[in-house]
Amino acid sequence: MKKTVDIIFTCRPVEIKKPISWVNAITRMKTRSPFDHVSVEYKDYVYESVAGKGVHKIHWNDWVKGREGTYLISYEIPRHLVSFSKFQDLEGTGYDFMANVYYLFNKKEKLANKANNKMFCSELVAHMLGFKDPHLYTPDDLERKLREYDCYITEI
Known about the structure:
Layout: E1 4-11, H1 19-30, E2 37-42, E3 45-50, E4 54-59, H2 60-63, E5 71-78, H3 84-90, E6 94-95, H4 97-104, E7 118-119, H5 121-128, H6 139-145, E8 150-155
Parallel strand pairs: 6-7
Antiparallel strand pairs: 1-2, 1-5, 2-3, 3-4, 5-8
C-alpha cells in the first residue's frame, strides 16, 4: 500500500481563449494566493471538487489533459492523515459557486451559512484532512498548513 498521498496545488496560466483561466486568475488575486485549485492525488487518481462536476475522482491521465503550462506544487503527506471515506461520503456533491462569489467579494463571513450540499475545492481537501470548519480554507490556507511536509514543484 502506498504510504503517502499528494496534496496538489495548481496555478493555471491565463489564456485569452480559455475563460475559465480568467476565473482562476481572479481567484488568485482575491485570495492573495499563487494557487487557484487544490486536489488530492493517490494511486493515479485525483480527488477534487470542480465547477461542472462537483466532488468526483478522475484518473491522473485524464486530469492532466488541457492543463499544459499549469504549475503544480505538491506536498507528500502520510496516507493515514487523509480520509477517503469522507471523500466517498461527499462524492457527487455539487460545486459551490456561491462560496467563490463570497470570496471574490470579500464576504467570507457569509460562508458560515453556506449550503452544505455544495462544496469548493479547498473545502473538500480540508474535509478529507479532518480540519475543523473546512469551509473557511482557501487553497493558500491549506498550503500554509502543509509546509512541514516534503514538497516538489513541477509543470505539466
